[in-house]
Specification:
The protein is an all-alpha fold. It has eight helices and no strands.
Length: 152
């Protein structure tokens, strides 16, 4: 359960950036892409599931933070993270997990822990070749959760 919330924390660490391209053909393509949900632009449930799996693997291998997840059911964790990302990106899923503040209270997560988690998430997104626009939008979609994770 803790890694699920750490994933959201990682998503919350990066703010939404916007990029605009020039040229009429590119603008037409951008307009069509804007009609699709972020969920669709990321590649749907299969792509989200792959990124979540890579992220969980990265965290499990990260000695800086894996102590938070030592007693975590990885299968359940991945399911909760997929639900959370799917819902946050406009997909058909409904997140059924606990609230972030309830899960993280008493864990003593520091800025350094949070930043390590962000690094692990960004690596998973980069390895999956998620485009910068979609990556920024995904990470920005959950940015408000950091206060419910760090320093509680």
């Amino acid at each position: 359960m803790h890694i699920r919330t750490m994933f959201v924390a990682a998503l919350a660490a990066i703010t939404l950036a916007t990029a605009c391209g020039g040229g009429s053909k590119k603008e037409d393509t951008t307009a069509v892409a804007a009609e699709k949900s972020l969920f669709e632009r990321l590649g749907g449930l299969d792509a989200i599931t792959l990124v979540v799996g890579a992220f969980v693997d990265n965290v499990a291998a990260d000695a800086r933070i894996n102590k938070f997840f030592a007693n975590t059911d990885a299968v359940h964790l991945k399911q909760m993270l997929v639900e959370q990302v799917c819902q946050a990106t406009g997909g058909p899923c409904k997140y059924s997990g606990k609230e972030m503040k309830a899960v993280h209270t008493g864990m003593g997560i520091t800025e350094a822990d949070f930043n390590a988690t962000v690094e692990d998430l960004v690596k998973a997104l980069d390895d999956a070749k998620v485009q910068q626009k979609e990556k920024d939008e995904l990470l920005g979609a959950l940015a408000a959760m950091k206060p419910d994770i760090v320093g509680l």
